[in-house]
Amino acid sequence: MQTSDRLRRLKFRAWHRGTREADYMIGCFFDRHHATWSESDIDLFERMVEEEDVDIMTWALGTLPVPPLYAGTMMDAMIRLDYVEIPR
Known about the structure:
The chain has five helices and no strands. By secondary structure, the protein is mainly α.
């Protein structure tokens, strides 16, 4: 699958999580960072979006420790939460 197809699929998956909170956290993260990702970053994000929303959100909020598989620069960026833009 071409990178552009993968990113299009990931964007949909990031923005259609099931709750508005997860959509904003994961979708806004994708929108802000995907343009700089390497193939291995895309692979990691693909794995991460298959996790439960509540798990991803608790890792990003620091409520639960980040599993070793996801620990690193991508999760460090997600933890900053400086990418969430909530429409008013």
